[in-house]
Amino acid sequence: MKLSSQLVAVVDDDESVRESLPDLLKELGFSAVVFTSAEEILASNIVQNTRCFILDVTMPGMTGPDLQVQLARRGVSTPIIYITAQKDEALRSRLIAKGAVACLFKPFSDAALQDALRLAIGWP
Fold first, then answer.
1. Superkingdom of this entry's organism (predicted)?
2. pLDDT, mean of residues 28-40
3. Using one digit for the tens of pLDDT, what is the confidence trace for 78-94?
4. 3-state secondary structure 42-96
5. Would you say the pTM of this structure is higher than 0.90?
6. Which of 2, 30, 61, 101 has a Cα-to-Cα distance from 52 of 20 to 30 A?
7. Which residues, at least 6 apart from 56, have a Cβ–Cβ distance to it below 8 Å?
């Protein structure tokens, strides 16, 4: 599997995450694109070409879980990894029960992200 052909979309209203996470993804061999909101990614033409979504749970307007519902309504079953500053195990359990591959608490380690990506796309 050629990792450079794997597009990961990051949706987070936190500018520091939008700046740092794509750099890490690129170091891991992925292509990355960032969006400031759920509404922005839904209005883009990138959704069908995305191999994995990394979504913030809490954002102004449409939340990450709201976006997951909208994607499902559009027939999109691309794996989702959530990231959140809310260190809430019950929240993590609910998100995974609703189909997320993983829910990482910010700040998360590079290794935790790698493990979640392995689960999401079967990356070795």
1. Bacteria
2. 94
3. 999 999 999 999 999 99
4. HCCCCHHHCCEEEEECCCCCCCHHHHHHHHHHCCCCCCEEEEECCCCHHHHHHHH
5. yes
6. 61
7. 11, 12, 13, 14, 17, 64, 82, 83, 84
